[in-house]
Amino acid sequence: MSQFASDVLVYDAVRTPKGRLRRGGGTLADVSAYELLATLLRAMQQRGLAADLVEDMIIGTSTAAGEQGGDVARAAALWAGWPDTVPGGVVSRLCCSGLDAIGTAAAKVASGMHDLVLAGGVESMSRVPMLFDKPAFAFEGELQNATGYVTIGVAADLTAADAGLTRSDLDAYAVRSHHRSAAAPASDSVIPISSDDAVVLDRDEGARPDATLEDFAALPTLFGEDPSWDLVARQIPDSRRPEGGLHTIGTAPQLSDGASAAVLGSARAASTTGMRPIGRILAATQAAVRSPRLTAGVQAARDALARAGITAANLDVVEANESFAVSPLLVERELGLDPDIVNPCGGSVATGHPLGASGGTILVNALDQLARVDGEFALLVIPGGLGLGAAVVVQRV
Q: What's the CA gap between 31 and 18, in Å, rounded?
């Protein structure tokens, strides 16, 4: 039933709470990226992982610069006090980085290359802002034209307009996300962040239980007059530019700080580690469309379901990263999903999208929710800039 020749099992999956950006009074703004990740590594040891058995670490980081540059995976492992023998590396695929890390780790296990691999992601957007690495595609005119790169919010507005989604549709979705996030149950898979032996954050920041449609409807749009629309007009002459724009600060993903980590392994790893698997990776896919559209997540999701040998009707949980409100709405509509199973505990427009960490974060959320509802299959999907998309199908065991 899986695209993989042999079982790829999930033995543990954890994440930090998501913290607001520094300018929003974020609690994690003074915690380094390597400390966020190291906190999870230490926690996994306390939960039963023998670190010396980990044969590789693959960590997704969108902006691999500053304290997140120079192989933050290896640095965090050493900072956490892990054995010198544990290697580590970084993958960077913009917003899809964390799911790419999980897919790459799964492939290593399935191939027989390794029996136990840690995969996840980290992003401290307070300390290493998006585009801090000055990527050429965003700043050099010829390459920008060739890649179709535009302000990501313009891409979201374009995608929503093409899909016929209205400002009201987006606002209503965001209010739903806030309400669900605020009501989300506590989880042992969310590892508190401490300082001087005192817990400073133990749940996601940002959710507004009192959010109303009237509040969100009153917010100004962000991207209606963005100069990137000129490039869109050149790239896609028949594109629909929504008058005044569609997304607002309320329907955009909140920028945030966080980390995630999962232990993937072969069936043999159960006997060597003494750990019990909680899930199975059935498929991991990547897709791309012509930028600036944000529709590749839908194609990646379809491919992942096909490779896993199931259909959307088999899904009990869908974690569609809220890379603007348009993204989950598009997945919901195109796959014919019941809204009740899509992001049942809210998502990034309420509590933040820590870029490279988001893939592992939605894996944790999906496994938690499968356990709550006694479900079997979950779909994880993330669209990214430059027309990228990624998806993973996981089965609870």
A: 12
Among 33, 86, 89, smallest CA distance to 357 is for 33
φ and ψ of 314, to 5 deg? -85, -10
* CATH code, 1-125+141-397: 3.40.47.10
Q: How far apart are CA 301 and CA 359, in angstroms?
A: 14
Beta strands in 8-48 (DSSP E): 9-15, 19-20
Q: Are strands 89-91 and 19-20 parallel, antiparallel or unpaired?
A: unpaired
Per-residue pLDDT tens listing for the chain (397 residues)? 678 867 999 999 999 999 999 877 789 999 999 999 999 999 999 999 999 999 999 999 999 999 999 999 999 999 999 999 999 999 999 999 999 999 999 999 999 999 999 999 999 999 999 999 999 999 998 999 999 999 999 999 999 999 999 999 999 999 999 999 999 999 999 999 998 889 999 999 999 999 999 999 999 999 999 999 998 998 888 888 999 999 999 999 999 999 999 999 999 999 999 999 999 999 999 999 999 999 999 999 999 999 999 999 999 999 999 999 999 999 999 999 999 999 999 999 999 999 999 999 999 999 999 999 999 999 999 999 999 999 999 999 9
Domain ranges of the chain: 1-125+141-397
In this structure, what token pair is assigned to residue 282? Answer: 């059935």
- Beta bridge partner(s), residue 201: 193
- Provide CB contacts within 8 A for 387, sequence distance 6+: 148, 288, 289, 290, 291, 292, 293, 294, 296
